[in-house]
């Protein structure tokens, strides 16, 4: 994970501004200057609290790492082996985070959206959207479902399965369409805004957790079939790298224009495919060249090895790092 992040920082600090030019290219140069000044905060996973940031989209990566560092506070009790203590720790942690974040959100009176409210944009982004406290509740929901998947086996009849999925899709539909009324120009309800900001993300985590839990226990049906298609295998290996590099590459394309952009569905569909293809190609090259070998080396240093010789064609041992990297890149995920 870290090697690709370091390469992304290096790319934006050194080469990004050399890719193109144009009347609005100073936007990219500003991005490069931020990286040259604040590169260290990104590599230390602190950029969500330090602005302006380098590789701006990695604010979420910083939050994820921070929450992983703090997670042993709860995992200590979960791993004691007693279910009552584990449940008490998980539920107490979730309740405490929800209480703290909800109180903070109500005190600060954040809007539920900044569309049409440019005066609140920076306050919303810095103090709510990229705040570890307000992002912790979905993480706790994920920990809770991880424990459930590990310790519980789900058995449902066909009727219960249908009701289960109906409830899941009802919840997801509510979450998606709840954004419509709060986006209207005449919307003005601070209590509803605060409740939305407090609970919409843990509710989405609840929906995702329920979907994974059902698929894991064999009740996913066509949803599990679709999510398990081999076509997603390579893309899943590339997703982290695309996440790191897509924003800089998109800016390089978008800010190199020399004429005003024209909006149409076809033109933006083409632009999406171009952005995705470019990001995928760059990421594929960097994953094969840097990430896969580094991951393999890290596993070898930890003593885990890279698998026995039977995993390679012909049953022989691997002849070098490229074969090992390719095996790790294209292999199917382990079951379970």
TrEMBL record:
Signal peptide boundaries = none
Ordered alphabetically, the record's keywords are:
Membrane, Transmembrane, Transmembrane helix
Q: Where are the transmembrane segments?
A: 59-79, 86-107, 127-149, 161-180, 200-219, 240-258, 270-290
> Which InterPro entries does this chain map to?
Acyl_transf_3_dom, O2_lipid_transport_reg
Acyltransferase domain ranges (all copies): 40-290
Q: Which Pfam families match?
A: Acyl_transf_3 (PF01757)
- Protein name in UniProt: Acyltransferase 3 domain-containing protein
Q: Which organism is it from?
A: Helicoverpa armigera
Which gene does this sequence derive from? HaOG211255
